[in-house]
Amino acid sequence: MPNISIVLPVYNVAPYLEACLDSLKKQTYQDFEVIAVNDGSADGSLAILEAYQREFRNLQIISQTNRGLSAARNAGLAQVTGKYLYFLDSDDYLQHDMLERCFRLAEDKALDVVKFDAEPFAEAGNRIMNAYDSSDVLQENYVYSQKEWLDAQRRRYNSPVWLYVLRSELVFKHGLRFVDGILHEDEIFTPQLFTRAERFMYIAEPFFKRRYRDGSIMQSSIYASQTSYDSKREVIRLLDDERAAAKTRGAQRFLRKRCMILAIDIRHYAKELQRKGALPVGVRLYVTMRAWIRKVRRRNGVG
User: Fold this and answer.
1) 178's torsion region: left (phi>0), alpha (psi -120 to 50) or beta?
2) In the predicted structure, residue 71 carries a pLDDT above the cut 90
3) CA-to-CA separations, 237 to 60, 278, 290, in angstroms, rounded
């Protein structure tokens, strides 16, 4: 049984897949398995996986019809055997010592979650949207309790799961899975993870190399997408359910803020996409109050 399981969804990423797989072959720590889920690729991605499998003994390939990122991650998750778990996107790649440093830290400190930073880079004509740098709110060499971690996340939060190495037992114990059929699935999975984990640490190193490419989900205009709008509404509903069930004040406050931020965000979508229908009452009241406060501040020349 390997120490680390890497779940790698693959869908039409042939131009980038070799760079991703090469970054795994070059890792300084090699006690890991790769569970590649070919999600109905039609561009030669499967052939690349099969070619690498012949020389990459710890690469497993699962093929399925195209069902989306959540379903692909869940299919890989069902095959995980490692003590630690990592979700990698197949159009990005890793720094050569990422697995070793995260694994050693997690083992030495008995951690549930190890967080690190990302270094974004863009193809021609694409705009870098996020620096993925938490060094201004998190400190290294410190074990965070859940309360401390959630307090820090209220100041600077990153939802992408590829910024975290996880203890597999935590995910399986709580039955965590990605919500099928929606975009922005990390916006619910990561908060669920944070409110169940107990020990966290941060490494101020851009281990993850984040590619902004043509045709990716987040490079498309999300504010003109009905699927994106409806997905965020569903995430808000799920987060509010999590908040209602949360057992600590810290978890409740963190989840409430995530609800509010997403509820404010969906107001920026194209008006013709915004379907009528009530958000959770507390969320709706908060957003209305915030809009009123902004209006008053502008009228008074503040902000």
Assistant:
1) beta
2) yes
3) 36, 10, 19
